[in-house]
Amino acid sequence: MSGIHQFVPMLHRFDAVGEHTRALRDQLAAQGVTTRIYTELPDPGTVDETRPYLAYEDEAEPGDVLVYQFATESVMARWLAARRECLVVNYHSVTPPRFFAPWNNGIARLQVESLYELAEIGPRADLGIAVSEFDAAELREAGCASTVVIPVANVATPPTSPDPVTAERLRRERDRRHQEDAGGARWLSVGRLAPNKGHHDAVAALFVARMTTDPGARLTLVGTPSEPNYAHALRHYVISLGLSGAVDFVSGIDDAQLSAYYGASDVLVMLSDHEGFGVPLVEAMARGVPVVAYDAGAVSEVLGDAGLLLTRKHPRHVVSALYRLLGDPAECERLMAKGRERVAGMDLANAGNRLVATVRALADKALAPGATGAAPS
Fold it and tell me: How many Å apart are CA 66 and CA 69, to the nearest integer?
């Protein structure tokens, strides 16, 4: 029986691409579609959910549709481009190599290679699916003739309820700081610890805020350390600025725990230099958390006028804008209301269905008489 099968270099939990892949699999399976996830390399946390990509050569069926979750370099890109099945490239953006080059030349070289792979697989794809118009433009530039924009399919709508244990712990911590006369704004930054995410800019802004405006301000960084050199340097930077007691590093939490952190925060600070979508923007808007974000990549496309967009991120500029917003409760309420409206307008709850319907339409076409989407002999 033909199916719709996904290919991803590695399937990670608590990762935007990984969770998107798993969500699509679940949607397809719920509709009775034969579906499997194939990877180049196994991840210990998801190895029971995947198969080696070369195993597909013996499992291919006429009429299969292959969906490649493209976000980084992989030998699978050229392997897929050489096959005859109907091919969909679900593009999640490639971080420009220049962000990794100072920290990890190996990763930078892989990102350069992934851009070459995109230029090779783009013209071969029957359809390119992008999570934003920003990403769709990159797909078209790579030679993908047919593209469609469908937001990520793994954002919980309505938001996951906060984990009560985590929420209570965070409440007690804030009460204690207020009793010690150390209360201040609680900043939150969400995203893997990688150079392009700009966490170091958030730390620099926090330092300025504590020295000038809000001595009790605190920052929580939620994200997996995806580039060890940068993650180590970021922790050292925090220590060198004397912020060890004001910055918390959090990773490996589930959606309910993350929801508790959003609920305990006064503002989401997102100073990333490159975003193909920006899931934390949606998470914050859905939960009524004010957003201060740097205008890069797809940030303005996702956030619109529902948050404070910065055109520069000098620490003093960030602090001035952030506290001007927090000092205006009426403006905060206005932006939070707009944020909820914006999330509702994205129809994210239906994104998975739209994605499945789009891919299934290609599957039906591949099975039509005379179609060329058959497994190679």
Answer: 10
Strands (E) across 204-246 are located at 218-222
Tokens of 138: 């990159």
CA torsion through residues 153, 120, 10, 262, sign: negative
Are 66 and 88 in contact, with CB atoms under 8 Å apart?
Answer: yes
Q: How far apart are CA 34 and CA 195, in angstroms?
A: 38
pLDDT for 15 equals 77
Cα distances (Å, whole numbers) of residue 287 to 93, 137, 158, 293, 360: 26, 30, 9, 16, 33
**Given this model, what pLDDT does residue 370 score?**
59
Asked if 41 and 11 count as a contact pair (C-beta separation under 8 A), the reply is: no
Structure tokens at 306: 């529902």
pLDDT digits (tens, 9 = 90+) for 307-338: 999 999 999 999 999 999 999 999 999 999 99
Continuous H helices in 244-328: 255-263, 279-287, 299-303, 315-326
Give helix 329-346 / helix 315-326 axis angle, nearest 10°: 100
